[in-house]
């Protein structure tokens, strides 16, 4: 609307500039007939009618949809903006809730992974302990067989046999004494 008024004002100024040099010869100037008009006036009238028609259409649209009360139009615009803000808040809240859900889900997955990892580590440690226990039992069994064989071959009347009999007194059995003796020799 302002641009059309500016255009009209500009056309008027141009017309006035054109008429200023002619004012010197004002008396010699011919006055146009009351029904006749200049081309600039024709263009100006044409622009005015187009502008008035457009304004009339806009006014018809506004009055038919919102009534002629500008206060009602302002209220409606305000209510629409408030509704839009409320919808945006709801969308933001839903996005935040979704973000919280995703965060909780990630935390849950992380805890589960930590739990699985700790359980796997614990299983590996138990397996290592079991393997070392089995190895120790096999070594003890092998040492027991070796000690039994050594005892079977030991002559009790030899110097080593005599010494071993003295050595055994501090043990519960001769086999345990032989096992310690053989460990010390290795």
Folded structure, characterized:
The chain is mostly helical. The chain contains 5 helices and no strands.
Our measurement of the CA-to-CA distance between the termini, rounded to an integer number of angstroms, reads 111 Å
Characterize the biggest β-sheet: none
Describe the global form: rod-shaped
Report mean pLDDT, rounded to a whole number. 81
Order of helices and strands: HHHHH
Number of helices: 5
Portion of residues in beta strands equals under 5%
What integer value in Å does the Rg equal?
56 Å
- Unreliable spans are 26-31
Class by SSE composition:
mainly alpha
Helical fraction equals over 70%
The counted number of beta strands is 0
Features:
single chain, 5 helices
Short note summarizing the structure:
With 186 residues, this protein is mostly helical.
Give the secondary structure arrangement, pairings included.
Blueprint: H1 2-19, H2 39-66, H3 70-153, H4 159-168, H5 174-185
Helix pairs in contact: 1-2, 3-5, 4-5
């Amino acid at each position: 609307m302002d641009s059309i008024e500016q255009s009209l004002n500009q056309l008027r100024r141009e017309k006035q500039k054109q008429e200023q040099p002619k004012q010197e010869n004002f008396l010699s100037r011919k006055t146009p007939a009351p029904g006749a008009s200049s081309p600039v006036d024709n263009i100006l009238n044409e622009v005015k009618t187009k502008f008035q028609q457009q304004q009339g259409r806009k006014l018809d649209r506004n009055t038919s949809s919102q009534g002629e009360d500008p206060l009602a139009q302002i209220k409606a615009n305000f209510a629409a903006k408030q509704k839009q803000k409320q919808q945006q808040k709801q969308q933001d809240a839903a996005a935040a809730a979704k973000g919280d859900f995703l965060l909780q889900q990630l935390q849950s997955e992380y805890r589960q992974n930590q739990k699985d990892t700790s359980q796997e580590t614990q299983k590996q440690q138990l397996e290592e302990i079991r393997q070392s226990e089995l190895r120790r039992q096999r070594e003890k069994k092998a040492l027991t067989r070796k000690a039994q064989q050594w005892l079977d071959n030991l002559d009790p009347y030899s110097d080593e046999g005599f010494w071993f009999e003295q050595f055994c007194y501090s043990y519960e059995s001769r086999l345990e004494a032989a096992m310690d003796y053989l460990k010390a020799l290795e």
